[in-house]
Amino acid sequence: MKKAYKFVIFSFIGPLIMTFFIAVFVLVMQFIWLYIDEMLGKGIEWYVLAELFIYASANVVPMAMPLAILLASIMTFGNLGEHFELVAFKSAGISLQKIMKPLIVFIFFISIGAFYFANNVIPVANLKFFSLLHDIRSQKPAINIQPNVFYNEIDGYTIRVKEKVPLEDGREMLKNVMIYNLANNNGIRLVTVADS
Fold first, then answer.
1. In which residue ranges of the chain is pLDDT below 70?
2. Terminus-to-terminus CA distance in the chain, angstroms?
3. How far apart are CA 98 and CA 70, in angstroms?
4. What are phi and psi of 22, to 5 degrees?
5. Residues 96-139: tens digit of each pLDDT
6. Burial class (CB within 10 angstroms; exposed 0-12, middle 13-18, buried 19+) of 92
7. What does the pLDDT read at residue 141?
8. Alpha-carbon gap, residue 79 to 177, rounded angstroms
9. What own/partner pairs with CB < 8 Å and gap ≥ 24 does 84-92 have?
10. Burial tier of 97 (Cβ tally within 10 Å: 0-12, 13-18, 19+)
11. Tell me, what DSSP letter sits at residue 151?
12. CB 132 within 8 Å of CB 52
């Protein structure tokens, strides 16, 4: 019976790991498309992006783990049924509940580990992720200002820039700038016009 339990568990671990990493990859790709516009063109080093993706990966583990367990279970028992191992277990007098028993115990320990992970690791990863994302957003704020587009992400102000000129040190100079001060709600708008 111990050999049968080992066989079922080792048949389950491979698909579990594979489906877990595929699910994490898909969910991190969704994260990338969500925040890609805030990361592009800012000259961020690869290790900063890798750190950001690691924190994002830690945040998606609670969504990826149940999906991985479900898919790995389907793959394992489908594979056992396809190769007639379930028939061999049934002919040996082992019921399906006994075949599933080691996986139920194994998943119980995974759920305890997932609870520990969600309780202790995810809050720290969340804090570091949003802190790093804030640092990336504020690294080069002028990069969000597009030429000939009204930029109003600053409360009380609307900015329009005719062109952006790259400088030798990697920064950009804004040319023909108009700043509308909308902070006073009395109907009077102050407009500041600058060459650069």
1. 1, 41-42, 140-143, 170, 185-188
2. 79
3. 19
4. -65, -45
5. 788 888 899 999 999 999 999 999 999 999 999 989 888 887 77
6. exposed
7. 58
8. 65
9. 85/7, 89/4
10. exposed
11. B
12. yes
Q: What pLDDT score does 30 carry?
A: 87
Decide: 183 and 156 in contact? Cβ < 8 Å.
yes
Q: Which two tokens stand for residue 115?
A: 């609870």
The pair of structure tokens assigned to 47 is: 């290790």
Alpha-carbon dihedral 5, 109, 15, 28, rounded to 10 degrees: 180
DSSP for 3-23? HHHHHHHHHHHHHHHHHHHHH
Q: Which of 110, 115, 132 is nearest to 31 (CA)?
A: 132
Residue count of the chain, please give it. Answer: 196
Please give the pLDDT value at position 122: 93
Do 178 and 195 contact (CB within 8 A), yes or no? no
- 56: Cβ contacts below 8 Å, ≥ 6 apart: 28, 31, 129
